[in-house]
Design goal:
By secondary structure, the protein is an all-alpha fold.
Length: 154
């Protein structure tokens, strides 16, 4: 069984052969981040596929944030590069939920939380507890929290 990490290595080697600079540099940086995570504790260990996914998601989030920052700073070329790197990484992540799908999941969670008596500010935490396992890896925390706030306020 191939692990996600070995898949990244294979794809890196393929992209080097194909002289795909964007893809190979993105995968190199991501594998470096994985290695850094593996040696971060007191002893070196192999990351599970779930842990590798978390690293990839973190890297993808960095690219999105950098792209926004570059775009605001008028550095279009750099923003494009970050977006392109983000797309390379997105291919390894679970498909992200659409706004409609996310709204539906959150709306249902809000009902559940209210049914169990969660009201006011406490409801936010209760709803997040219900939503997070359902959307794990498919929607960013900040995006989820914004929808929860909106639906609780509405």
């Amino acid at each position: 069984m191939t692990t996600l990490k070995s898949k990244l290595h294979e794809d890196l080697n393929a992209s080097i052969k194909e002289r795909d600079e964007l893809r190979s540099s993105t995968l190199r940086l991501t594998l470096a981040a994985i290695t850094k995570e593996e040696v971060a504790g007191t002893e070196k260990r192999e990351l599970s596929d779930d842990e590798v996914l978390k690293v990839i998601a973190k890297e993808a989030k960095k690219r999105r944030e950098a792209a926004e920052a570059f775009a605001q700073g008028g550095r279009t070329e750099s923003a494009e590069r970050e977006r392109a790197e983000g797309e390379v990484l997105a291919a390894y992540l679970p498909k992200q939920l659409s706004d409609d799908e996310l709204n539906a999941i959150v709306a249902q969670a809000v009902e559940e939380a209210r049914a169990s008596g969660a009201e006011g500010p406490r409801a936010m935490g209760a709803v997040m507890k219900i939503v997070n396992p359902k959307v794990a890896g498919q929607a960013e925390g900040g995006r989820v929290a914004a929808v929860v706030k909106k639906l609780l306020a509405g």
